[in-house]
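fyi for ur records
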Amino acid sequence: MVGQRQFDEKQTLDRVLETFWNKGYGATSMQDLATATGVQRGSLYNAYRDKETLFLRAFQGYADQFLADAVDALAHPDAEQALRRFFDFTITSMTAGTPTRGCLTTKTATDERADGERIQAALRSLLDNLERVLQERLSLEDATARLVIPPAEAARVVITMTRGTVVMERVYQDPDRLRGTAGSLISALLAPVPVRSGPGT
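which gave:
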């Protein structure tokens, strides 16, 4: 039928995402995407108009899943463990693959050919949403009782730290080093749990 897509859109967008993630936005051509997806360039243009729109469609699915996984990681009832799980999730994501694939958001943010306003807005939206869910988790009583700075500030520091973690991963290729640094930040943000004195002490 005219106007009906003759390909599996989810599978196509998954392959589009993988291609952008591996090659970077600027280095990826429509022909690269056609080859990766097995969908002719003409069909991709008809369905999505241009490379930027195709990237945005693929990125939206990635962002939704990334945010959902972050919320799940932060769901631990202990604030310290919630932050450790959050960092473990982000580090595992960026160190997956051989060679490691890095962080799609940061890779795109530093790509001079990905400077379109729609792309920048999509990147800001994901980071803002991550900061929001972190702030919500750090605003719970178990966290506020230990935080040395307000939850909003702590959330922004953590998000900024994850961006720096991406760079250090590129340089050192050492997940244990990244987790160690994340642990140091958590220790700096959370005061030690007070030791409760027993009867007669």
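The two ends are 81 Å apart (CA to CA). thats all i got for now
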